[in-house]
Amino acid sequence: MPPLSSRHLSSGDLVADRRLEMARDYAAAGETIAAAELTEQALELAPEWAAGWFALGEFREAAAERAEADGDAERRAGAIAAYREAARLDPDDRCGAALRLARLGAAPVPDAPPAAHVRDLFDGYADRYEASLVSALGYRGPALIERMLDAHAPGRRFAHALDLGCGTGLLAPVIRRRVDRLDGVDLAPAMIAKARGGGLYDTLEVADVTAAMDARTPASLDLVTAGDVFCYLGDLTPVFTAAARVTSGGAVVVFTTEAVGEEEVGGEVVLRDSLRWAHRRSHLERVAAATGFVVVAIDKETLRRDRGRDIVGHAALFTRS
C-alpha cells in the first residue's frame, strides 16, 4: 500500500516544494534529521502548508525512532507538534494527522480515518492499485472470499449484493456469477471510475460504506462483501449494525480483516504502525452477537505481503439470524 501522506499537495511555492522533495530523498537514504531540517526551511517559505507540516512530523518521528532504545523525547514531541499543526491547518485532515497523533499517544484512537484522507489516498493510487496489490503484494482477498462462499454457501444464488469498499472491482468477478444484482460503493471517485470500466456492477456509488447502507431500504440485501476494507475501520459495531438493518434473514456477510498478532499489545482492536486496524477474533465474535449475526466461519489466512512479511488476517462469513 502507498504511504499515508498526501505527497501531491503543493505549497504553491516552487522553492518550498523542491526543498520538501529533497528532504524526502534524504529521508529515503536514512538521513531523517537532515530531512527534517530541510522541511523546516521549506515551511519558513510556506508556513500555512499542512502537507509540509505533516511531512515534518514524519521525519521527526522517524528520527526519534532511529535514536537510542529509549527514543528521542524531544524529536517525538516535535513530531507531535508538527502533526497538530497539520491538523489545525487542514480541518479535513487529508494527510491523516489524527492517525499519527493516535499512534503516538497524543490523541484518542478514532474509529475510522478521516474520509478526505482515504479519498485522496486511493484516488492517487487508482491507476496502479491492481498491479501493486495483486502482483507486487500477492493480495489474496478475492480468492479467500470465493473460498468462503464455495465452502459455506455452495451453489447459492443471491438476489442483491453490495460490495463495500469495492475499489477498482477486484471482487466483482467472484460475486457477479452468484448474484442477480450487484452494487458497489467506495469513498474514492477514481476507484469507482475504474470499477465502472469493468462493466460488472449494476450500480456504483461514491460514499462511506456505513452511510451507504443506512440510506438503503431495510432487508433489501442478501449478500454483503468487504475485501480489505475493515482494516480502515476500528470498532466494527457501527458497520455491522448498518448491515443488520439492510440485510434480510439468512443473508450472508463475507469479509476479511487483519488479525492482531500474539505478540501485539492492546485490546480487541489495534491501530498499527501501518495506520491500518487489526482485529482479534474475539472482536468479530462479539460484534456478530451484538448485531444479530451468526458466525459460520472465521479462518486464519495470509492476506498479502507488505514490507517483506506476510500479513495474517481473518477470512470470515456470517449469516443474518
Work out the oligomeric state of the chains in this entry.
Answer: single chain
Low-confidence stretches: 1-7
CATH topology of the largest domain: Rossmann fold
CATH class of the largest domain: Alpha Beta
Distance between the amino and carboxyl termini: 36 Å
- The CATH homologous superfamily of the largest domain is termed Vaccinia Virus protein VP39
Tally of individual domains:
2
Structural class: alpha/beta
Provide the gyration radius in Å. 21 Å
* Percentage of residues in DSSP E strands: 15-25%
Largest sheet: 9 strands, mixed
Give the overall pLDDT as a whole number.
Answer: 92
Q: How many β-strand runs? A: 9
Give the overall shape, derived from the CA principal axes: elongated
The portion of residues assigned to helices is 40-55%
- Count of discrete alpha- or pi-helical segments spanning 4 or more residues: 13
Just name the CATH architecture of the largest domain.
3-Layer(aba) Sandwich
The arrangement of helices and strands along the chain is HHHHHHHHEHEHEHEHEEEHEE
Can you put this structure into words, describing what you see?
By secondary structure, the chain is an alpha/beta fold. It has two domains: 94 residues, Tetratricopeptide repeat domain (Serine Threonine Protein Phosphatase 5, Tetratricopeptide repeat); 194 residues, Rossmann fold. 44% of the residues lie in helices and 22% in strands. The chain contains 13 helices and nine strands. Strands 1, 2, 3, 4, 5, 6, 7, 8 and 9 form a nine-stranded mixed sheet that branches. α10 links the parallel β2 and β3. α2 packs antiparallel against α3. The longest helix is centred in the N-terminal third of the chain and has 17 residues. It is elongated and about 60 Å long. The N terminus is likely disordered.
